[in-house]
Amino acid sequence: MSFLEFNLTPSIVEAVTSMGYKTPTAIQTESIPVAMKGGDILGIAKTGSGKTASFVLPILNKLQHTKPVEKNRQPKVLVLVPTRELAIQVVGVFKEIAYELPRAVRAIAIYGGVSINPQMKAVYGAEILVATPGRLLDLQKSNAVELSKVKILVLDEADKMLNLGFQKEMEQIFRLLPKERQNMLFSATLSDQLTGIKNVLLSDPVVIEIEEKEGGISLINLMGYFVSDDRKGPLLRHLIREKNMQQVLVFTSSGLKADKVAGKLSKNGIQALPIHGKKSQSARMEALRKFKSGELQVLVATDLISRGIDINELPYVINYE
Questions:
Q1: Same domain, yes or no, for 65 and 93?
Q2: Residue of higher predicted confidence among 279 and 264
């Protein structure tokens, strides 16, 4: 199957092709036709399976067939994400595909950890908002954005949104949205929270669940070490040195623990930086840039941050706890 078969605007197909994508992934094949028709979707597929394009392409296609309206603070599309990194990543996909479309489409990312004033100005005239819940509510309370005209709502990495303390904020946002809208939820896993929200948020949704092929799983080697807490640090350092590990992603249970683990590694001559919600945006982006480029040997992160880290064939992932 090719992207031409979705009846997308030719300029969108050209943009996708120029980015090097020749055939749609399984989640894209199943979800794009439903999204094009305006149906609600609950899509379950592993991280890195192409979920972002599953909603970006039909959204941009729909906007290409509508007339631009006068600039205002009423976006047509709202994409909610759990992390700043993912907001930047998703809006980047929107911008890359929309760059040379005949009908200009403006998409912006709004998130905490940076000054709110530039974002308040940037919202004016944006048709697509990619937002973390807390900062979106801050903007709404300041009358910088009005959500009553949203036509399409997307929850990206919805399992994380519902599992990690966003539920109250999301309930506030849902109350600000119009009842008549298209809803698309995409997640890496199907949890009880997702099953519950399906009954409240989605109208007769098409549930698409893409199972991981055995071939992908066979590429992963799993090992476990059962040691006391006081021996975890020395063992981690021993493994990194003994196996000459490069580009190691270490997950910890909290930002405080990430700081401690990264600090101990650095003191022992292993290049490491922590990344978590309490770090400034510039520090987070710089740590992620260094890790992706291979300049940084170890990145110590909290689980939430994982949804903003997209690296093909990452060689080492360690769950510290």
A1: yes
A2: 264
